Amino acid sequence: MAGTQVSQDLLRDDSRLPRVPEPGVMVIFGASGDLTARKLVPALYDLAAQRLLPMEFAVVGLSRTEMSHDDFRAKLREALEEHRADQFSEDVWESFSKSLYYLPGDSKKSETYAELKDFLKKLDEDHGTAGNRIFYLSSSSSLFPTIVEHLGEAGMNEDAGGEEDGGYSRLVVEKPFGRDLESAQELNVDIQRYFDETQIYRIDHYLGKETVQNIIALRFSNGIFEPMWNQHYIDHVQITVAESDGIGTRGAFYEETGALRDIVQNHVMQVLCLTAMEPPVAFDPDSLREEKVKVLKAVRHIPEDDAESFAVRGQYDEGWVFGEEVAGYREEEDVASDSQTETYVSLKLLVDNWRWAGVPFYIRAGKRMPKKATEIAIQFHKTPHTLFSGSETRGLEPNVMVIRIQPEEGVSLKIGAKVPGSGFEVRSVNMDLLYGTAFLEEAPDAYQRLLLDLMLGDPTLFIRADEAEGAWGILDPVMKAWSDGGSEVARYEAGTWGPEEADKLLKRDGREWRRP
Ligand code: BG6
């Protein structure tokens, strides 16, 4: 009977059962930094609270700051009380905190690694962590090659941990992965000298977001979108990563980085790839990453001597955000008074393949925008013939499908509908799906998902070497044009949607930016 067959299949299907990883240790380089307290440890704490961490698990924080194990734990507890205020449980903390350790050490010195190796061996004995090691590079990126070399020299790169009874060894590399194509290629060579690509997990937290993964679900688990997902039906695509926050206390980092490197090279390029890629043959690491790389290869090269026609950079001046007066970028701490660093970028990218020929992808990412909004807007062509008069269709816009990544995660479709009444006025209205109301489960934090995948050895949602390089390759000509003195960074008032130049970028094509 068909019904019996289905329930038997469901019984056999273990995809909804919690996946608990093998025992192991996570060593965090740069552990005194912000990421550890704000993201990594809260994500591990959440996993512990949901019993998704193995009992035999430990974290070792490593950085130069002198701290005892207890100081480290106290610092993390404080951070958890702040970032997990509602969910903090004394019981969970009691057992979780016993797995937290700290080693002060200079990551440029060999003795640090000898000490680490001994310490890890001791943890294997005390916590049963079975020689499985994850090395998480969350320090300044300039230290990545040095750390990897030392790990290699100490034999900690080997999958057997250099020991007969050892387990796996994995390397996690935080962003930014290099500063440009050349440095990313060098970094790949440096880390691949000691670690095999299968051991390397380049992390981009956007891939851990449920709503980013949902782009894949939306496109490939529904038959109705795929036939329309191409140049025959789509006029253009807009990808927006807007933040209302400024750069906070990260002035020194941001001066070196800027919006193009901080957001576009990684988060935006990943979203672009998932939106534009062909259906992968399977949902496995290589099939998915193969398709993403093909998109990056198809993006048309931006000519360095005409970068202005494709790229705009902006920087915020003082202004008002949510009714509060905020300082301009150049007034922020650790920022030069004549800084040319961009806090806003917009790009026009063309994907030269059969699916997307002639469909521009307009991208923008900026700080101090009127609100936080990350979304993909797919704008469809206008109807080929207008049945109604101009006055009847004054409020009618082309169909737009918006995939909202955050906040108010969901999907909406703008359609034309008749305004109730005796006339025939047609206006655009939204059909809205809000994930928050469609599902009862709360979405896990992006890092929680990625750290779990990492411990389970699933690299699907991590970046492959050629993806990182492909994304830099697209942006290199723009960065060169800007650093070779191209036009000055354009200005925009904090609390607005970016500089006028960005509006002109679309106006030239007879289009305009959406207001998310
Ligand atoms: C980080 C950037 O990678 O992403 C930050 O360094 C940015 O500058 C952040 O604020 C945005 O992430 P999210 O998850 O808040 O969209």
Reconstruct the topology from this structure.
Elements: H1 2-12, E1 24-29, H2 34-49, E2 57-63, H3 69-83, H4 90-96, E3 100-104, H5 110-127, E4 133-137, H6 144-153, E5 169-173, H7 181-192, E6 200-202, H8 210-220, E7 234-242, H9 251-276, H10 285-298, E8 311-317, E9 319-321, E10 324-326, E11 344-350, E12 360-366, E13 373-380, E14 400-406, E15 410-418, E16 426-434, H11 435-438, H12 446-456, H13 465-483, E17 490-493, H14 500-507
Parallel strand pairs: 1-2, 1-4, 2-3, 4-5, 5-6, 7-12, 8-17
Antiparallel strand pairs: 7-13, 8-11, 9-10, 11-12, 13-14, 14-15, 15-16
Bound molecules: 6-O-phosphono-beta-D-glucopyranose.
Bound molecules: 6-O-phosphono-beta-D-glucopyranose
Q: Structural class, please?
A: alpha/beta
Number of helices: 14
What fraction of residues sit in β-strands? 15-25%
* Annotation, overall tally of beta strands: 17
User: Which oligomeric form is depicted?
Assistant: single chain
Can you tell me the residue ranges where pLDDT is under 50 for at least 5 consecutive residues?
Answer: 1-12
* Approximate shape: globular
> Largest sheet, described in full?
9 strands, mixed
Please state the average pLDDT score.
Answer: 92
| Rg, nearest Å | 25 Å
First-to-last CA distance:
50 Å
With strands numbered from the N-terminus, the spatial order across the biggest sheet is: 16-15-14-13-7-12-11-8-17
- What is the percent of helical residues? 25-40%
